[in-house]
Amino acid sequence: MNQKEESDIIIKNGVILTINDYDEIIYDGAIVVKKDKIIDLGKYSDIKNRYKPKKEINAKGCVVMPGLVNTHTHLAMSIFKGLADDLPLDKWLSEHIFPAEEKFVDEEFCHWGTKLALAEMILSGTTTFCDMYFFEKETGRVAEEVGVRGVIGEGIVSKFGNENDIFENKLKLTKELLSEFENSSLVSIAIEPHSCYTCGKEILVKSKEFAKKNNLLYIIHLAETKKEFDDIKNEFGFSPVEYLDKIGVLNEKTLAAHCVWLSDKDIKILKERKVNISHCPESNMKLASGISPIAKLLKNSINVSLGTDGSASNNNLNMFSEMNCAAKLAKVSTLDSTVLSAKEIVRMATIEGAKVLGMENEIGSLEIGKKSDIIILDFNQPHLVPVYDYYSHLVYSVCGSDVKSSIINGKIIMEKRKILTFDVKETMRKANAIAKKVKTI
Ligand SMILES: [Zn+2]
Fold first, then answer.
1. Domain ranges across the chain
2. What is the pLDDT of residues 142-169, one digit of tens each?
3. What CATH architecture does domain 68-356 belong to?
4. Is the whole-model pTM more than 0.90?
5. The pairing of beta strand 374-378 with beta strand 403-408
6. Ligand 1 center to 426 CA (angstroms)
7. Could you tell me the distance, in angstroms and rounded to a whole number, from the CA of residue 437 to the centre of ligand 1?
8. Angle at 404 between CA 398 and CA 408, to 5 degrees
9. Which of 52, 55, 146, 407 could bridge across to 4 with cysteines, CB 3.0–4.6 Å?
10. 5-66+372-419 belongs to which homologous superfamily?
11. Whether 286 contacts 53, CB under 8 Å
């Protein structure tokens, strides 16, 4: 008999949704993990005699799928959730969020806010996030400590001071991030000017030059509200998309969040420049920003992923809830129930998310050689029985709390709903203590 190969983890007896190019589903399947990678997957009966794993996870009655990829968020803002609701974006930002940030956001705030957010994300199936905020060194450090994969970048907002000084400072911080996380297996760096209404032209252009030189993603909020669309049109004579195109910052390494207010010409530009999009339907609905024309964008072969946005404008970081809303919003807004199938939505939350972050060769699907970012969902529950179509349940019936276990980069981060890498109770205590001070404003 052949000698069995040593491995770290085997997940056995589950239904594996691979989300590969053929949307292959493996029943009674098994996945073998060694170090940070998936080294084998297939029928458990074919695989079991080939490996000697250190740890076995029995996924009977469970669905095993790639971890979810949340492509737009502001993690530390989780401490602001519920602080100011039922307001339009401009008022919400200028009268509530910006003043609270000015007063309270520091390293400690970002440490505990990020930890709180990551606890919520792990518990609802996210294994990769893309963040824009401040004190991102802390965000990156927390992501490494907790064991979650992330793209981080200093949010650049330049409207409230000397543009040059602000940019130089942000550039310095970005360079520090690049050096600190150069060899990180979990954290990568992007350059992130907040938007064309909070950053001057010079900053938008210089940020792109830096991004090109260092092969970084350029992440920006774009065409989020009617006010932004009208203001930019009045100031420059162009739509926000046309304006960013004129100044040369749109290409395949640009990730634009929201993209709600788009003309047909804008969509043509986004397609030609191969801009990637993060669709954040819950935030857009809650702030009454509008509805992104996702069906049209997909028809134009534009890469569309899903993001929750920060939990101050959502007010949660639950990607299953985002998937549910994305599906229903697309249907009701077009009066066409055939747009955005459940399968398409699941792909948006996994492999398409990986694609817009430039990580499709590493994550987003369960395939041999890819990183082992895997979640296990308990389907043995009344609201998930019976199953005619797994994708349908993932979009229309699953709750984030159905995620039982989570493995990221080969490490078990959550097992049977218990997060193993940090103290969640302490995190909630610290977040509550900070929130007590915030409440006084
Ligand atoms: Zn945002």
1. 5-66+372-419, 68-356
2. 999 999 999 999 999 987 778 889 999 9
3. Alpha-Beta Barrel (3.20)
4. yes
5. antiparallel
6. 27
7. 24
8. 110
9. 52
10. Urease, subunit C, domain 1 (2.30.40.10)
11. no
